[in-house]
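quick one, 283 residues, struct below
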Amino acid sequence: MVVVALLLFAGNAAQPVAVVDAPPPEPTATAEPTGLPVLAATEIAPPAAPPSIPTAALTDTPLPTDTPLPAPTDTPTSEPTVATTATPTPEPTATAIVAATASEAGTLLASDDFSGASGWADAAGNGWSVGYANGSYRITAVPGIGQIWSYRTVGTGAPLYSVGADVTVQNGSAGLMVNFLDAQNYVSFLIDPAAGTYELGVWQGGVFVALQSGQSTAIDADTANRLVARVNGTALRLFINDQLLLDTTLEALPPIDRYGFVATAGAAAGAALFDNLEIRTLE
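---
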């Protein structure tokens, strides 16, 4: 049993607000037993103040596409005797293409539909809250309070995993945390569906650095967006609605098997819902 104090960080002050003492959840989807531990304890805390998501347009990373092979052309001799037929090189099968680009293709290690308490933090403070809400996990924040987050440990002992969740942003920005070291050191991937923007950034020693940001047509402004992060050591692949957005390498922080949810307010109070969490292998 793990007991973790939950902290709210405001400037340089830290105030304990709750204590979690809960076992990891069981998978809610059928999966072959792997013998691996799954989710561990939860912790929440925002660092100082989040940056606003830039709206400058950047070109999305395109998905690989198949290039049709040219039609074979036979060049007859001056006195052809037997017609020749060129044999075209076979194109990759659909299965091979899916296996190479699918955002969630690995073995299911753990899942959560948030239909009941499963060990995530359920707490509130001055201007923020995290907890279960009508079959989803909800984070709220008022303007100026910074990023509010809740994290878990995968339990594999190595930073090799895929994390995916449905994210509905009611106002502001929200998304996934990956490579979470502590309250001052982690990687965040946020989307603002109303603006159609995204931002990948790293907090290092409490200082934020934007790594990639821009606009993407993969973001749906009218419904939940499926966000997936595939973490392979320092390599990170990010998907929105099964479309590859970024394929990059993170060298700023030591890789670790912790992930979480994160949200921040916009000009008005923000709220985000998270659902259908799945942790998978990279296979």
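Confidence is low (pLDDT under 50) at residues 1-101.
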